[in-house]
Amino acid sequence: MAMLWKFMRVAKYSKTALSPKVKVRGIPTHSRHSSSKSVPSDFAVNTPCSNTVELLGKAYPQDDYSNVTEKVLSKVGKNLHNKKHHPLWLIKEQVKDHFYKQYTGRRGTPLFSVYDGLSPVVTVQQNFDSLLIPQNHASRRKEDNYYLNRDHMLRAHTSAHQWDLIHSGLDAFLAVGDVYRRDTIDNTHYPVFHQMEGVRLFSCHELFSNIKDGEGLQLFEQGHRTAHKQECHTMEAVRLVEFNLKQVLTKLMTHIFGDGLQVRWVDCYFPFTHPSFEMEINFQGEWLEVLGCGVMEQQLVNSAGAQDKIGWAFGLGLERLAMILYDIPDIRLFWSEDERFLKQFIVPHIWQKIKFQPLSRYPPLINDISFWLPSETYSKNDFYDLARTVGGDLIEKVVLLDEFTHPKTKKVSHCYRIIYRHPERTLTQDEVHRIHQAIEESAVRELGVEGRF
């Protein structure tokens, strides 16, 4: 389940040329219990002509929606969640281990299937339409997503596979993978991160069999939508599904973070669940949001072929859990190949306690950039994405310092502060100056801004 409730401005993204030299590996599959169809590895990303991108063995023609960059494409196929002893792999394995042992079928086999090798290239229909997300919903905007073209994109959430997996006949599964979003730049945001999706569907018998006098209870009715239920669900069914969902997630978080964990639930809005909730945990005296969840929209369940069932879904970020559990301060570290980082997570078993020991804290270098905006179609995410493309992981944070409107011309100026800091070494003024100058030049050329530098 994705964080689609964050509404942002519309973007008009200037195309960034793709180099034919970029190489991207494929997507291997590493599921223990049940797995998706594997995606062949060792395919290259290349551009036989300027209007086509080849990714994972398929060619995608570019159009006015194409906005994926070299920097982002270079991350496709890294599959950090499947690299043994990586902190994201540890979190994934902990969740899998908990679900395998806690929830079993009649024959003692795991109830939940796990899919961690699904291709990150999906159709717009899979990412949005199958989840009933309206055509005019803010989450579809180019500002927030990486589109290969109008029909294909890098998935913005693992929910993109929900419909297909339910349609295949599954009623209990976890889907894990890398997801891609255009976003701000700071220590908790990165254009690529990793999600785990959980879905469980119940038949009438499964939901009510352990309830006293449950024989007469039903899943569905012809009613009205309220803040507490959908129009087609009975209140009894919704309450039981909601109770089961919160119980499952409370057990999971307690298993990961330890006994005595305080949990609270906050009502919220997700496009494809109702009612919906955010789960917060009290960790070291601070309330932290860890996941979103809710009762699945019945229209979605019905369209996937499970008309006689009701269910829940949740989505959590692996980086979010790992940063809390291991006290990792910067999301860029997950992409580090520094042995001082990686060796800290080589442990004999997945449940061993780990306290991340920070690498040497290198000093930041700070530079500002100011420019006049080209038009109303400009968005901050355009600049953030450009800065990431040019500066890569040398950029720790970008902050909009000032916004000024000229009293006569009504032109708008933005001033951004860019904080450069390498997580593994000290940067020099000369190399930062070259990068900063390249960002200035690229902003003028790609975004059409008028420099004030």
What does the model show?
This protein has helices at residues 70-73, 87-102, 124-127, 162-167, 204-208, 235-257, 298-303, 318-326, 339-342, 380-391, 429-447, and strands at 52-55, 58-61, 113-115, 121-123, 146-147, 152-154, 172-180, 192-202, 262-270, 273-283, 286-296, 310-317, 365-372, 395-405, 412-420, 450-451. With 453 residues, it is α+β, with helices and mostly antiparallel strands. The chain folds into 2 domains: 55-335, BirA Bifunctional Protein, domain 2 (2-Layer Sandwich), CATH 3.30.930; 365-451, Ferrodoxin-fold anticodon-binding domain (Alpha-Beta Plaits, 2-Layer Sandwich), CATH 3.30.70. Strand 5 (146-147) and strand 6 (152-154) form a beta hairpin. The longest helix has 23 residues, at 235-257. The protein starts with 51 loop residues before the first strand and ends with a strand. Mean pLDDT is 89; it is low at 2-49.
TL;DR of this structure?
It is found in: Mitochondrion matrix. The chain has 453 residues and is α+β, with helices and mostly antiparallel strands.
Offer a few descriptive terms.
453 residues, alpha+beta, BirA Bifunctional Protein, domain 2, Alpha-Beta Plaits, 2 domains, seven-stranded mixed β-sheet, four-stranded antiparallel β-sheet, 16 strands, 24% strand, disordered N terminus
Task: Give the fraction of residues assigned to helices.
Answer: 10-25%
Look up the CATH topology of the largest domain.
BirA Bifunctional Protein, domain 2
The secondary-structure class comes to alpha+beta
Q: What is the overall silhouette?
A: globular
